User: What shape does this take?
Amino acid sequence: MRIFRKYLFLFLFLFVFSPVFANVSLQKSLDDFVKLSDAVKTSDASVYVCNSSGKTLYEYNSNMLMAPASNLKILTTASALHYLGSDYRYKTSVYGTPIDKERGVMESSLYLVGSGDPTFREPFFEDSMDILKEFAQTLSEKGLRRFTGDLIGDDSVFDREFVGLGWKKSYMLDEYAAQCAGLSLNSNLIRLTLANGISSFIPDCSIININDKTTSGTYTEINIERTPETNDVTVNGTIAPWEAGGATFTIHNPSLFTTDAFDKVLKNQNIYMTGNVKLLPETDKRYKYSQFIELASHESPAMLDILKVMMKESDNLLAQHIFKTIGAKVAGHGTRENSEKAILDFLKEADVDVVGLSMADGCGLSVENRISTKQMGKFLSYMLTQKEKDDFISTFPKSGVDGTLRYRMQNLDVRAKTGTINGCSSLCGYVKATNGEIYVFAVITNNHTTGPSKYKGFEDSIAEIISRVN
Assistant: This one.
């Protein structure tokens, strides 16, 4: 009997205290590593680790407000699932008046009405023009050959702050800084080709003014400059006679770009107008189409499918559109202020202290974004308790498998979001440890004094230490 009691006591002791010992061991291992790391010595570093119940297991400068880079997309994703739902779909419509089929004439303007859909592009459609071509085909089949008004783009679902707050001017032509608008096409990028003094664009549009300063040379190398807040483009460099010079860059005013491209598609279907391409006057209220009829429409893929592309590939344009869609859904107009308020309100519901947390954009590109690793970690643990948990986790890159983690931590079971901007690196998400438990971790470093690889290694090492808990 004594032997039985002895072993029973030992079993109960181990059952009750083993997690405590494991946590103490984890804390020591992390502390030993972090405080001796070169990454900590060459940057401002912050680390937070908790279990799935939100119990803090380790923290280092965890209340320090940091620029999170693309880890801000975590807040955008969770809020989209909360406010919009995984099956939310954007709808784009074409409105007009009845068509006189005998004459092929519509006695009104034609309206292209956007909802902020960012999916007229790869990987959602092989040809970014597919939906606009479908619209034109539908109108042609309805007998339309001419309309007597204008072709009007309605992008009023969002404001016309096309560029995120705090985005650097040096980003403005780069693909990762494409502008966000209520009407969007081809990731709001355009491909310019110059050959024999002739310029052409994909997608075809007429809103770009080219100042070609290239010269003939023995090799081809061109440089693009776009005047801020215009589509006046200067091209410098040399082009070999037997080659074409090409460059892809961001477009200004994506709504006008999309509407103008639709005009080109309509003309290809022999549908013409007597007016001009224009946008509705900017307003914070949606225009009502009760006096018109819907002539064509399209619904996007489901929000969950969009979120998976956005998170796994860290797509800034998708994130910006989703961010503003949240504001449009909650407050009636997609502005930064409305979207930030909606997301912070959600974090407050999650019992996260949001003091100091700010969202200058929804993608993390802005240097003005701020969040602490404790705020991020607490929110990540909260999401494990929500009905959207599985959908939420499914959007994260998986280590060694896909997205931005396909070549990192290949022997670990990690679901986490990466982040990188100048002088900043981050990795936040979930680690499955040897004991089968899920742990939450958030690592952010700012103000780097050396290259980014050191800080990526720092992040991976923290995830590995957590994974060894048994």
